[in-house]
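[SOLVED] Need 3D model of a two-part complex

Original post:
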Amino acid sequence: MTCKFRADLLLFFCGVLALALASFARPGHAQEAGTLQQLLQQDAALISKASRRTIGPVIDRIVASDLPAVPMFLSAWQDKTIWQRRADGLFFVGADMGDRTYRLTDIDSGAVIATVPKDDLKQLKPNSGVRGLIATALVRFQLSDPDPSLREEALTAIERRPEAGLLAPLRASIDTEPDAELKARKMRIERLLTIGHGRDPAERVAAIKDMSGDLGVDLRAALNPLVATRLQISTDLPEGVNLARVLSPGGPDLGRLEAYDMLAEAELAPARQTPDQIKTVLSNHVEGGTVGGVALVRLSTPDARAIAYDTLAQEGKVAPLVRDEEIDAALAAHVFFETYAEPNPEVTAAALAALQGIATRVGLNQTLDLGLDAISLASIYFLAAIGLAITFGLMGVINMAHGEFIMMGAYTGYLVQQVIPNHTVSILLAIPLAFAVTFAAGVAMERLVIRHLYNRPLETLLATFGISIALQQLAKNIFGTQARPLTAPGWLDGALVLNDVVAISYIRIAIFVLALIFLGFFLFLMKRTRLGLETRTVTQNPRMAAAMGINPGRVNMLTFGLGSGIAGIAGVAIGLYAKVTSELGADYIVQSFMTVVVGGVGNIWGALLGATMIGTLQKGIEWLNPSNTLAAQTYMIIFIIIFIQFRPRGIIALKGRAAGD
Amino acid sequence: MRRSFVAQNPSVLVFLLGLAAFTLGVSLLAEGFGIGLISTSFIKTLGKTLCLCLVAIAMDLIWGYCGILSLGHFAFFGLGGYMIGMWLMYARTEIIVEASLAQGVIPPTPQEVIDGIGSQIFGVVGASDFPVIWMFADSLTLQLALVPLVPAILALVFGWLAFRSRVTGVYLSILTQAMTLALALYLFQNDSGLRGNNGLSGLQNLPGVTAPQSAISLWFFWASALALGLGYLLSAWVVSGKFGSVIRGIRDNEARVRFLGYPVESFKLMLFTLTAMIAAIAGALYYPQAGIINPAEIAPIASIYLAVWVAIGGRGRLYGAVLGAGFVSLVSTWFTGGQAPDINLGFYTLQWVDWWQVILGLSFVLVTLFAPKGIGGLFDLLNRGDKA
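Solution:
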């Protein structure tokens, strides 16, 4: 009890002393404070009503004091657990003891002082801006904190707010860093900080050179401010600036009038009158049906307006018109040039060289990324088209409802997910189920409709189109018009990230693998199984096949069902990637037919090549005109129309008897 | 013995008389003419239906008579609509802009008027300058000339490419479908110069005409009827002569016609271009009655419906195409317009808006399977009955 009282008393005296000191020492802050409390008392008012604009120097002084209690105080301040005692203005760490009382702990010694009611205290509540500054100040202490997660947090804070003052503590902490991963990250951030805030140009240039092989976005973020330019105007080219380039008005980079308007804005030349301004001025000076002696009705040409305006100017009513000669003279009298924000030319040169190197490498990586995109798009087209390669390519049946079979597959997947919540199981189950559903639909359609229309391809097209309309509307009636989700299993989330430029999502990889599996399955089925043999026989010559004891009707039915079933599986895959709507199939049908036609009818490799070509082409055109995927599709279709001119039978054209007609 | 053209084709006379009687009857009952049994909106529907009949005739020429199943004729139809729509929109906006600029003290310069029109029309797609394709938009004569010309050029280029490389059958169908898809996708872009997916709107107002819509709708109805009559006459004349025989020959056995020495590609190209022009004129009459045109109108599905109409009506006979288009599109309007009463099955209320498409699709399958001659086939049955 006495002890506590004494401590209190002592502190009180200290506080009084500190206050007294503060009142004397404030102007220069030259006074060395013995304890953190004393230091804080010097700026007590600023601290208790901290604002982002004024707190910076205070925090700097606190950090500069190097007192052992600083990190604890800063983090407590950030966590809003610092309380100020109303009686004497001293700061304490307060812990909530319930019953509206708080236990106060001394900032410097950590000793418990007293438990006091809340009414005697005032909490320091730094706003988020101030907390950000505190966090930055804390970083230097956290960099060597035993807790790795705190060290990581500190590094993240540096990345977010790279400041010159952090460079030294960061460097100091590298050697003692036990964690290899964190150490590497520290070294990387040290290099990046050095680029922006290194002591001398040589050091910074060296840092730029060190990092120039890197593709990270953070490096580009560090380099770009160095080469940012600012357009300036002056009568003569000044000496000693880091000049980026001199612009000539009227050239490709700076329009003549634009340059003059900049002069006018800088008040180096009188402002130019735009046609709109002239019109406004004229309408303000109408006198009895005329302006400057010109009748109103005649003012419908720019020339007449200029004459009227000139008259007004001669009468001294308005500022004179700026003429072309005056514009030219004003432009000739001034130099337009861009300077770098970074004053040192060596650093900007190194940064430019590094950025150029990076641009080349980024370009290469983007090409790689584009290639991967193209492959994944090609896989989707291939998946959508492989069923058609069977029904249309092999059997010659044009099935406009193929897209609707894809849609049925996707909706089957959706329904299965409604019943089975586990995504992995439901997808694995959805694939055979989608196959079964669309196989049945295909067989039914073949038996009921297509069987009667063999050798009448246009009629087949129309009849299957009728089925397509009916199925689409049916899906709309059952599932509504809004998109239904078909969610991929968790292990397909995310992307395979190679570097900051190249990344490919796992779903796309899965679709690619699925496409490969289908290719293998198709080849196996056609070349190694009885059904494949019979299918090829019936395709080539149904009568001969029948004579050999093959039932062409049955084979056609099974083959058509197979093609439809594969469409259903493709639907599940496409549904994972796109939204499931009743128009899902219609979106792919034209591209699917294109794929088969371009590739060459009757050949699976043709479909593969066709899909690759169309996918690559579409991505390539999108790359040329990235804002506009619609245009890409347009140009792709035009390209295909022209392509068919040169290879009417597709990339892989069947020759000889197999070609038939 | 040479007989007159009409005498050779009595059905043409019957059709023209029927069309005239229909037009007269509708006009007399129309709201714009006083009696008012038929509302203005229904007059517009009838007028639009006549335009659809005209484009169906074009489709029948190319498909029913020449065997080319084009799934892209609505591209020409839409282009025709766009061409006339450009003038309608320009001229109407010009009047509005001039009126608003005339309020100012100082009369506007021509450039100010054009800038005003530009920002009015292209404001929705964030532009204000006129693209090159609007070069002639201020001239009705030139724009009217472009109505058949632009689709004809497209048809000529596309047809030349396609026929030259002997693309036939379903391949050609898919290719025409790709063409119309490409055009629709292109027009969907905002920077295509035709206002992207907003399309051209306000086309029902004739610039400078103060007559009420009830009168304007009748004018367009008459113009559509006249165009349909002339189109029918032209088509009947085309298919009745030697040209028609060659074309039917191509449909039935292309190789044989080629061996006989006829330039098959040129015949096909000529017919393809001619039908594109007919479709364009039909479109130019259709869209002022519809009031708005946007790229969705050109989507592949529209052209396929065209094939559906012709197939249901009965291809290979011109009146079949007209009957099919008229019947199916009017019935479609009735069912999808919500006028048809719902059927309550107790456990489920059958709404025609939802189920009409399903029925249309299935009936289409049935027609293809069991009645390849379509509605027109009924007339054959009647004729046979007469003779028997």
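Edit: Chain A is about 60% helix and 10% strand.
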